[in-house]
Amino acid sequence: MSGGEFALLSLTVAIGAVLQVSVGFGLGMIAAPVFSLVDPTLAPAVVLLLAAGVTAAVLAREGGGADLRGCGWALVGRVPGVVAGALLVVFLPARYLALLIAGVVLAGVAASAAGFAPRPRRSSVLLAGMASGVMGTATSIGGPPMAMVWQRLTGPRLRATMSAFFLAGSLMSLAALAAAGAVDAHTLRRTALLAPAAIAGVLLARPLTRRLNAHRTRTAAMGLAVAGAVGLVAQQLSA
């Protein structure tokens, strides 16, 4: 990894961590396409490890407001999704996995822009948890399904509920990836190198969140995610 690549990844992780702390998701959506462009071996495991640390920090601060019942049903749905996602990582060629990452990002942004808002019934939470399990394990981007089904939650309750789900869900996904041989010493070294950027993002999130317009911040995050996804598609098609 060159110095320029390390700086790009660190900046991406810091921005993603700010968004993760502020709105409850965002690190995977922004980081996964960029990581896949720089080094395909970094996604999904390194992104999931970094996201688990950031969500643990959010949960420690705001965990008291989490909807634990909703999290429970979502995690029940995530179990089969995690298994399916791990199988995709094992059997899907790297090129198609990269295109899957880009597709998940673009689909998530499109659904958000369209204002799709299913009611948070038990069945929809279960299905969202399953979709999040597949997407989160295979691509490290498990946020969009849960953000859509829980978007009627606001502020600290949304962040706490999303963080409780993603911390448990990320650990499930990492366990499945480790069993499949997709977590190794290289993964842990790269995570350790990028951890300071995640910590910086967590520390910057609180003062920045008070000053930033939430709608504009989310729009900017979606724009960055789309740019990364389009760049990833272009790279794979030109390879």
Automatic annotation (TrEMBL):
<feature type="transmembrane region" description="Helical">
    <location>
        <begin position="97"/>
        <end position="117"/>
    </location>
</feature>
<feature type="transmembrane region" description="Helical">
    <location>
        <begin position="72"/>
        <end position="92"/>
    </location>
</feature>
<dbReference type="Pfam" id="PF01925">
    <property type="entry name" value="TauE"/>
</dbReference>
<keyword id="KW-1003">Cell membrane</keyword>
<feature type="transmembrane region" description="Helical">
    <location>
        <begin position="164"/>
        <end position="183"/>
    </location>
</feature>
<comment type="similarity">
    <text>Belongs to the 4-toluene sulfonate uptake permease (TSUP) (TC 2.A.102) family.</text>
</comment>
<protein>
    <recommendedName>
        <fullName>Probable membrane transporter protein</fullName>
    </recommendedName>
</protein>
<keyword id="KW-0472">Membrane</keyword>
<dbReference type="GO" id="GO:0005886">
    <property type="term" value="C:plasma membrane"/>
</dbReference>
<feature type="transmembrane region" description="Helical">
    <location>
        <begin position="220"/>
        <end position="238"/>
    </location>
</feature>
<keyword id="KW-1133">Transmembrane helix</keyword>
<dbReference type="InterPro" id="IPR052017">
    <property type="entry name" value="TSUP"/>
</dbReference>
<dbReference type="InterPro" id="IPR002781">
    <property type="entry name" value="TM_pro_TauE-like"/>
</dbReference>
<feature type="transmembrane region" description="Helical">
    <location>
        <begin position="42"/>
        <end position="60"/>
    </location>
</feature>
<feature type="transmembrane region" description="Helical">
    <location>
        <begin position="6"/>
        <end position="30"/>
    </location>
</feature>
<keyword id="KW-0813">Transport</keyword>
<keyword id="KW-0812">Transmembrane</keyword>
<feature type="transmembrane region" description="Helical">
    <location>
        <begin position="123"/>
        <end position="143"/>
    </location>
</feature>
